[in-house]
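Here's what a typical entry looks like (3-dehydroquinate dehydratase):
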Amino acid sequence: MTKTIYVLNGPNLNLLGTREPDIYGHHTLADVEALCRETAARFGLEAVCHQTNREGEIVDLIHEAAKKQAAGLIINGGGYSHTSVAIHDAIVGVQIPTVEVHVSNVYARERFRHQSFIAKAAFATLCGFGIEGYRLAILGLAARIGLAAKT
């Protein structure tokens, strides 16, 4: 049975490629999802990708990941990273190894973006690598759960 990881993208990430390309680049959400699926497959993992603009749906997807015994979670909470205690609590509650990802370097941006509730629940945070951060997150997650790349 193939292990799964959930890749969750929060509000406005459906606009990747068109929203503020000077900050977020020209890659689309479809590019992110393809990158995640390809990278996960190198480790014998299946990446289950979701994007939603609704906080409660993110919480529900985190619960679903636990119910389906996902091996890990990659999350870009978008703006909810800085505001959502509910998402933090969901991650803590399910105890799935989690990596937080941000396309931009949140620490080079507005001060309110320097605080992340998700980071406090994740074992790692990556920011500023563009969509490459998702690949790096999967590499780190695979190492954390003891998987090596398949040749």
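DSSP finds five helices and five strands in the chain.

More examples are in the samples folder.
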